[in-house]
Design goal:
Helices cover 23% and strands 27% of the residues. It is built from twelve helices and 28 strands. By secondary structure, it is of the alpha/beta class. The chain folds into three domains: 205 residues, FAD/NAD(P)-binding domain; 129 residues, FAD/NAD(P)-binding domain, CATH 3.50.50.60; 164 residues, no CATH class.
Length: 544
């Protein structure tokens, strides 16, 4: 029998954060994870995080993962990989399978951070090779450098579906459509908007009717559904694809709690069956704690904070710190966690239709139904301004907990306010110097610099660009609007890539002056070719 102070099950963001906090207080911590590398979902997340400084805002997920691994190593945390916990029994005994061997371990406290598993939906042909979870696609691309397919349809418009669709585009895949049975986009509007402006269409109130092919996926047919989620006859649309990605939510992997006898409840708002926990993450069994998605589906930033709280609580439970020290640290973490649980996407708003922002501005219906803010809606948001000369245009239109744009601007042109979910606004008398730090730091890629030339007949639009190859200065192409359709010809006049931008290129394109507030993406090639490509995509979705 192997003994240690604390056992952590799961080496993802929650588990590693718990291990680090406990180890800082002097506990000996052993972490078990069934995977061949630690970090959980973080190493698949190449996008920049939302939130504030304490939430690792504007830092890419895999970088956060590397930082956690390095800190754990410095603190002497014993991380055992390829080690599957197959049992949790009384007196905090854990049974682990490592290869062909089974070993028994005992601890005085246990933190379970096993995360969640992808959900699946069934439809005709759903077992064909080529139907995969969005998380699996992300693993293939971002961990193994393998494209999941050439032409992909994404089912699901939550944050996972939106983020993975964008990453599929970055990997060179053709994402033919985003489909969701719900009548509105489920994830952050900024995630939807950055996909839509690349030309990917959204089909809300639609779902998959069947996948086609004999030994692998060769096509897919979707159809509209009514308010009872029944297919509407005559609305079928066909796409030639070789891959169908499914992003329809996650379910907590809470089986270990049941084995130990911890109280578990079925809570749909939290994603399924979850342990009953107190404010510190402690379950009904003293000394056993839960953290991260296993206790309720949220973002990785929330999981890390929950992990820190559980690690502190476990350390206090074993006497490594006193209650006053724990309480002080927990208060700071609770404040950070509360900041992430505000705004339109707060847990209390799940399943609700939020029709106005905190500022009383009507939410864009086009964004909810089509994935982009319509041209006649965008001007009502406080970050969207017009003036002669260079200035930021902030197309952040939902109350999301995020404020790195405010911190990034050296001239204080941008103000989010005291509440992290407030819509960013451009200060009226500010003097933008065009440094581009706000554009590069925005996790939602929702900030543009617009230089409206006085009486010169054109404007320069600077946008975030994260695709390869990066267009070169002088390259001509077409500017796409928020809906992904061609709006005018464009020429690249500048491309800036510096270490401070963290792999986000700042591409500046020159467009006619009347397109300054419409042009939001650059595509190489002629306007005619882009229009033909858009028409071809629409034709592919013709009704059967």
């Amino acid at each position: 029998m192997n003994r240690t102070d604390i056992i952590v099950v799961g080496a993802g963001p929650a588990g590693m954060s718990a291990a680090i906090e406990a180890a800082k207080r002097g506990a000996h911590v052993t972490v078990f994870d069934e995977n061949s590398r630690p970090g959980g979902q973080l190493f698949k997340q190449i996008h920049k995080f939302f939130g504030s400084k304490e939430h690792h805002a504007k830092i890419r997920g895999f970088v956060i993962g590397e930082e956690l691994m390095e800190e754990a190593a410095r603190l002497g945390v014993d991380v055992r990989l390829d080690s599957t916990v197959i049992g949790l029994y009384q007196d905090k005994e854990v049974v682990v399978r490592e290869g062909e061997e089974v070993s028994h371990h005992k601890a005085d406290a246990i933190v379970i951070a096993t995360g969640a598993a992808e959900n699946m939906v069934t439809f005709e042909g759903w077992t064909l090779p080529g139907v995969i979870g969005a998380g699996a696609a992300q693993t293939m691309m971002n961990l193994h450098g393998v494209r999941p397919g050439e032409r992909v349809l994404m089912l699901g418009t939550g944050n996972v579906g939106l983020v993975v669709s964008y990453q599929l585009k970055q990997a060179g895949c053709d994402v033919v459509a985003l489909v969701d049975a719900a009548p509105r986009v489920g994830g952050y509007g900024v995630h939807a908007a950055k996909v839509a402006r690349t030309g990917v269409p959204f089909y809300l109130s639609h779902t998959i009717k069947r996948a086609e092919g004999t030994d692998h996926v060769t096509g897919v047919t979707i159809a509209q559904v009514d308010s009872h989620f029944q297919f509407v006859p005559g609305t079928e649309k066909h796409f030639d694809v070789d891959t169908i990605c499914v992003a329809v939510g996650l379910s907590p992997m809470s089986q270990l709690f049941k084995m130990d006898g911890c109280k578990v409840v079925d809570d749909r708002k939290k994603g399924g069956q979850v342990p009953v926990v107190d404010d510190l993450g402690e379950t009904s069994t003293p000394g056993i704690f839960a953290a991260g998605d296993v206790s309720g589906i949220e973002e990785a930033s929330s999981a890390m904070i929950e992990g820190r709280i559980a690690g502190l609580a476990a350390a206090e439970y074993l006497g490594f710190i006193d209650k006053d020290e724990m309480d002080k640290a927990v208060v700071a973490n609770d404040a950070a966690l509360d900041g992430l649980r505000q705004g339109m996407f707060a847990p209390k708003n799940r399943g609700k239709l939020v029709t106005t922002t905190e500022e009383g501005i009507p939410v864009s219906q086009s964004l909810l139904e089509h994935g982009y803010v319509a041209d006649d809606e965008i001007a009502r948001f406080p970050g969207v301004t017009r003036r002669v000369g260079i200035h930021p245009v902030i197309e952040c239109t939902q109350n999301i907990p995020c404020n790195p744009c405010q911190d990034a601007c050296p001239k204080h042109c941008i103000k989010v306010g005291d509440h992290i979910t407030q819509l960013p606004a451009v200060e009226a008398n500010s003097a933008c110097i065009g440094c581009g730090m706000c554009v590069a730091s925005c996790p939602g890629q929702a900030i543009f610099l617009v230089d409206e030339k006085d009486e010169e007949g054109f404007a320069d639009v600077t946008l975030p660009y994260e695709f390869l190859p990066v267009p070169a200065k002088g390259e001509r192409g077409v500017a796409l609007g928020r809906d992904g359709s061609p709006v005018c010809e464009a020429e690249v006049v500048s491309v800036r890539q510096t270490r401070a931008f963290d792999h986000t290129a700042l591409l500046t394109m020159r467009v006619p002056a009347d397109m300054a507030m419409r042009a939001r993406f650059f595509r190489a090639g002629s306007a005619g070719a882009a229009a033909n490509e858009t028409s071809a995509a629409a034709a592919t979705a013709a009704a059967e």
